[in-house]
Amino acid sequence: MVKTEREHREDIIQIGKLVFGKGWVAANDGNITIRLDADRILATPTGICKGMMQPDDLIIVDMKGNKIHGRRERTSEILMHLTVYEMRPEIKAVVHAHPPVATGFATAGRPLNLALLPEVIIGLGCVPLAGYGLPGTSELTEPMLPYIPKYDALLMANHGAVCYGEDVYQAFFRMETMEHFARINLVAELLGGAKVLPRGEVDKLLDSRTRYGVKAKVSGEPGCPLAAEDIGAGQAGAGEERFYVTRSELIGLVDEALKARGLA
Ligand SMILES: [Zn+2]
Fold it and tell me: Which of 31, 83, 113, 151 makes a 20 to 30 Å CA pair with 243?
């Protein structure tokens, strides 16, 4: 059933409350948009907390970003949303926020690209990291252009993340999956390092998408996600454990071995 503009407004208000409630934004950060039709985008305006909006606070812009309806002003980040809509005709909603753990990865220069969790591999493939671009300028979207056609969730270096989908709930859920994944990845690292799934298992998960009815954009892009073999972890035989030594410990071990053979 096609939703009315009023219903779309209410959906954005609800998603705004969720994004704010989850702590994915501070103060007036973030923005949410819905494609109403071929020429109009319903958008959150600039300078408003996404958890405290009223339906009439939202504005409508055209496909060039010019405001055509509403009291409030448009956000400079609208250009990023318009780029996604232009490059992906099937996309009907875009959510941009700064979820802290995923944004932490983006700030550390790290994509979320390891094959760790079945749901993430099936739903997103992986989340690549687009380079930094100055917010409010075309530089913001420039580094994202190669990724937008292939992925449904992107990290933006030293900034945040953007997710999109066929409706605003799907865009929101993709961001939720991404942030949840980032948290689990971080905890696994604190506990000594995540164990990456082998290629065979990753391929089975990617193949199972049709069974689950998942229409994910990523279909086995090289390195998305990285399997155990891709990061060298698969070469160690079963039951073989990796360990790490410092430089001086390694020199000590080599010295000891040489001495034991009467060579030093
Ligand atoms: Zn932002």
Answer: 113
